[in-house]
Amino acid sequence: MPSALSKNRVFRFAPSPNGLLHLGHALSAILNHDLAAACGGRFLLRMEDIDPARSRPEFEAAIYRDLAWLGLDWEKPVRRQSEHVAFYGGALERLNAMGVLYPGFLSRGEVKARVLAHEAAGGAWPRDPDGAALYPTEERTLDRDKALAWIAAGRQHAWRLDMDKARALAPAVLDWSEAREGPEGETGIVTAKPERWGDVILSRPDAPASYHLAVVLDDAAQGITDVVRGQDLFHATAVHRLLQSLLDLPAPTYRHHGLVPGPDGRKLSKSNQDTGIAAYREKGMSPAGIRALLAGYGFVFH
Predict the structure, then answer these.
(1) Do 246 and 95 touch, CB atoms closer than 8 A?
(2) Measured by CB atoms within 10 angstroms of the end CB, which terminus of the chain is less buried, N or C?
(3) Is-cis flag, bond preceding 129, omega within 30?
(4) Which helix H or strand E contains 31, and what residues bound it?
(5) Cα distance from N-terminal residue to C-terminal residue, the chain
(6) How far apart are CA 96 and CA 118, in angstroms?
(7) How many angstroms separate the CA atoms of 90 and 49, rounded?
(8) What is the pLDDT at residue 273?
(9) DSSP-assigned beta bridge partners for residue 59
């Protein structure tokens, strides 16, 4: 029988309603649901719909339909990020007051051109764990009054985390508890190295909170104790631990699982309709068949 402590464990599945769920989503959802059930804990569903340009109600409805067909149930009401914009704004104001934010005005095209020119000249541009070029850092020292005047004039910008200042305010040693493993087999207590990500975006005019900021705030607000997600987010946990430290938020236990390979052997994409849950359902596969298919890839359910 689950202990009183285990009943306090809270798991969540947090998809973005910008496309149809695929087998990889099914894996995460089932793992979270089954782990919660196994320990007598709670299973929550969250809609990460902070980006209004990409989030669509028909995809949200499809998510509910697919998860229900898989036999999963979750607590109501569902938390929707679009309903908590002021909550994220308050956290940004707090970080700004700490002096760890600055507005970045370079477009993706401008950054790309600068990187290409630098590398063409034989230089090596620093890149994050996903292989993307880090954002240039000279705007960290841009005159604040000038920057605010540009913003008031309508110049496009994004609020970025000054990684050096943020890192200096956090404990010298940041880590997290990993209950499964990272891409290289990392497990147990893992040292967080957020500086590898450079000056990450925390807010844009078209998206009031980035994934990094919203996810740590939402997990804290919902009392999430166990974050179970794919290994593609393993290294991003370092940024999340830094933000949790800066904002005095609790750190969940993390459990990163392997990824379901697509037909080409790469990570699944929502754009590949053939691996969508709805497509399997329409072909006559049962929810048990989905579990068997995932088990065939070596995933174990509880």
Answers:
(1) yes
(2) N
(3) no
(4) helix 23-38
(5) 15
(6) 31
(7) 18
(8) 59
(9) none
pLDDT at 167 over 70: yes
Quote the radius of gyration of the chain (alpha carbons, Å). Answer: 20
CA distance 192 to 208: 26
125: its two tokens: 């541009």
Whole-number Å distance between alpha carbons of 191 and 273: 37
Residues 41-76 have pLDDT tens digits of 999 999 999 988 889 999 999 999 999 999 999 999
Instruction: Give me the mean pLDDT over the 165-177 stretch.
Output: 97
Q: Give the distance, in angstroms, between the CA of residue 194 and the centroid of all CA atoms in the same chain.
A: 14
Among 222, 212, 274, 281, which Cα is nearest to 250's?
Answer: 222
Q: How far is residue 236 from each of residues 2, 66, 176, measured CA to CA in Å?
A: 32, 27, 12
Token output for 36: 């919660």
Specify the pTM: 0.93
Residue identified by tokens 């393993």 is 234
Q: How many CB atoms lie within 10 A of CB 283?
A: 9
Q: Is the dihedral of CA 20, 25, 29, 30 positive or negative?
A: positive
Question: Do 157 and 201 meet the contact criterion of CB atoms below 8 Å apart?
Answer: no
- Sign of the C-alpha dihedral computed for residues 8, 13, 16 and 17 taken in this order: negative
Mean pLDDT in residue range 288-300: 91
- Here the tokens at position 241 are 């631990």
For 96-107, write each residue's pLDDT tens digit: 999 999 999 999
Alpha helices in 132-210 (DSSP H): 144-152, 163-169
pLDDT of residue 301: 81
281 in Cβ contact with 21 (< 8 Å): no
CA pair distance 233, 177, nearest whole angstrom: 14
> What's the pLDDT band for 298 if we cut at 50, 70, 90?
confident
Please give the Cα distance from 270 to 22 (Å, whole number): 6
